[in-house]
Amino acid sequence: IDNLESLGKDVEQKTQLRIENARKNAADFISSLAFIPPYTLQNAVPSTIQSQAQSSYETGAPLEQTEQDISPNWETTLDYLSCELRKAGVKDDMAFNFAAFIYSAIFVNHSTLLMAGPYGTYIANAFSTVLFGRKAGCLDCSLKYNAESINNMLNSDDKVVIIKNPLNAGWVEHITECLCSFDKHFILTYPFAEDLLIEPRGLFNYMLPVLTEFVIDVNKVPSDSFIGSVNDENYVSFDKVKKTKIIHPRALQQLNMGMIVKQRIQHILFDAHTMSDSFTDTDDYLFSIFPYACATGQSEKLSNILCETPLKSNEMQTSILDYLGVDK
Question: Which residues pair with 209 in a beta bridge?
Answer without folding.
Answer: 114
